[in-house]
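Retro notes
What went well: the complex prediction finally ran end to end.
Inputs used:
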Amino acid sequence: MMKFYEKYREAVNRNNSLVCVGLDTNPKLIPDFLNQEPDPIFAFNQRIIDATCDLVSAYKLNSAFYEAHGSKGFEILKKTRDYIPAHIPAILDGKRGDIGNSSKMYAKMAFDEFGFDAITVNPYLGGDSIEPFLEYKDKGIFVLCLTSNSGALDFQMHGKPPLYLRVAELVNKWNTNKNCGLVIGATKAELLKKVREFAPELILLIPGVGAQGGNIEEVVKYGVGTIHVEAKRKSCSAEVGLPLLIINSSRAIIYASHESDFAQKARESTITLRDNINKWRK
Amino acid sequence: MMKFYEKYREAVNRNNSLVCVGLDTNPKLIPDFLNQEPDPIFAFNQRIIDATCDLVSAYKLNSAFYEAHGSKGFEILKKTRDYIPAHIPAILDGKRGDIGNSSKMYAKMAFDEFGFDAITVNPYLGGDSIEPFLEYKDKGIFVLCLTSNSGALDFQMHGKPPLYLRVAELVNKWNTNKNCGLVIGATKAELLKKVREFAPELILLIPGVGAQGGNIEEVVKYGVGTIHVEAKRKSCSAEVGLPLLIINSSRAIIYASHESDFAQKARESTITLRDNINKWRK
């Protein structure tokens, strides 16, 4: 099986894109005419994937939006994951984490049962809660570090150094299988620089960027900055040129239109975001 | 609908018990003969519930053990939840948490879709990630505070005061609907005392106690200690006598035997734990 890291690199190169499309599909927000389909959420996802799969580096499925429909939702999650082309990485945004015995079950769910290439996990329970995920060496494990909501101030900034940097530091240490990443909210672009000091070699998954996001320049500047760090470290020189960045947009792409042209508009929004990002990559 | 808090109080009084049985059901660990049943996990859970429902204050279902089986697992979770008698609180141990929009979906899953009385959540994303759960005023929201694994040292002890006490302090503040609680690992019984200084009025959910747990005395002493705090605060005097403590045991009860007598042995282990706890309640 191709490693997440390699699959990601191939998708980035193939589609010349760092964009990840977030399939946070809410049945109340999809076009009315899809409700005549037997499975409206899946029908919506199919059309979004068809319209964007030559433009993205990954898809991210937010587990919450599927679980909200119980076991039926889990079926749609599985069908959608299986519909994503095999050469595009599929990330389960589940933010899971529990003591080892239970995390093992969550890893089994994400990787064995659903076949995702990567998952987001929550660091609160510490290293041994993340270990069962890391043991899947071919998968990508994105640990929550700094989020884009206002509540991020409650705990993520606690202590000296602030907790989020402590997380970045330890996850960087746990990266012995080269399968770790961090989740960093795009609204905190200036803090990316600090994260990179602690974690120069991790892929950053950046949610919170819209098609019109004004901080794309900063995100790319500080996120891609890692190339230079790696270039200096001779041991990693083979990776020079890889951006180590996945920039997610959900609502701004999938709900770009609520009419029958939603898939075409999603495609256009993805192109706009891809080009906005690529403008700053050189 | 009866509030979680009232339902918990009634169950404690009816069964004279603080024991919560954790249904972390692993198909590899259930007696062989159950594999002839059409749904072995559910058959196991039914028998455990039948054998213990007059002895407990709550049941806790660890979501990970069900999700590991995909949509079929979510069906078993639902069937098991529905099988728990209506007067006994059912807690979903899901450790969920995401930005507001997504947490709302997780709350919908736990409360509207599955009908749980309470859920465990992860505090890492801060107050606005927990808010959508708290808006369900009739439900119990248990926030992870201090866990029993060795990884708890990685982040929960970070800063001054340590992060877990900051969590206890803020959750106590967010308790305006009187529906908050904390999850505190039993192996840290001596730290319960500190938690109680910051959060005197929250129900504590204590996992990690086995039938032979040597620290039950300390857990009860420091956990139930809140009664005295509340007694001193005249405003809460109506609650004097309520222990504000839920002590969970999973494996030591449900796997007390792997033979055909497993339900009877689970009953006996529950009685032993209940009596061990009650010995220290007076």
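What we learned: Residues 4-279 of chain A form a domain with the TIM Barrel fold (CATH 3.20.20.70).
What to try next: split runs per interface for comparison.
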